[in-house]
Amino acid sequence: MIKLLIVLITLLSLSSVNAELRLLSFPGETIKLMLDVDQEVQLNFEKPLSSIGIPTDIKNNIKTQLIDSRIWIKATKAFKPTRVLVKSLKGEISVFSLSASPNQQKAQEYPIKYNIVSERRQAYKSSSSGSSSSGSDSSNNKKNTNTATKAGENYIALTRFVAQSFYAPKRLIKKIDVVRVPINTKQLITLFACSKNLACNGNVSASPLASWKSSHYYISAVLLKNTTRQQIVLDPRDLLGEWKSATFHFNRLGRTGSPTDTTVVYLISLSPFEQSL
After folding, report:
1. Structure pTM?
2. Cα(259)–Cα(250) distance, rounded to whole angstroms?
3. Whole-angstrom Cα distance, residue 144 to residue 156?
4. For residue range 215-241, what is the model confidence (pLDDT) as tens digits?
5. So which domain of life are we looking at (predicted)?
């Protein structure tokens, strides 16, 4: 069973990642989210909400419903990036930059779900997973916690480092405690299951680029390329393997031969890449 935590990361000198299943936002930074017209999305927050502020410019282009800590959004017409503020019961503000474009594929019957999680919360979960109150396990869990809380051990830091290793100038890359590990880069791999989005795995070729190891995780980068004449929206639910986190640099692939037919997915696992497939 695939266990995924899809993260939305604002990378230095990079465009924001638009992930399909779950988002993780940095506190205080704008979350960019592109909607497909007529495709409903569900935003799940950690805390109960009080309001969502929709500017008058797009009120006729969007439908929203807020219940407790969840928001359902459906764009009925296309619109340009617009700032939307979401306020929690405690007065905390989340800033979204919403935009909508015509859907190139048939809308799904069910909402695409996004979990909005703070970086601090995610790092805490990574460091405290598997904790126990028993005396014999306490010592082991303390060691695991100390290991997991080292600099660069959370999913965000690992994914940011690998993405910047490919796309950012070396002087801007923040060094973390990881080492490069061998990975077979000379063969294509089967990374997707067949689905109505992909039709079949052969529609998207996948080839490993590189892999690193921290004291607790492996983080690998895989190049994805659309081999069809149709636009493809990548869905993490179609991924094969055991991943703790999966982040598409861009989740939309243009038709083959276009400048947007290629992207990279960053995969975090507990085992080496080949064993996690």
Report:
1. 0.52
2. 12
3. 19
4. 889 999 999 999 988 888 888 878 888
5. Bacteria
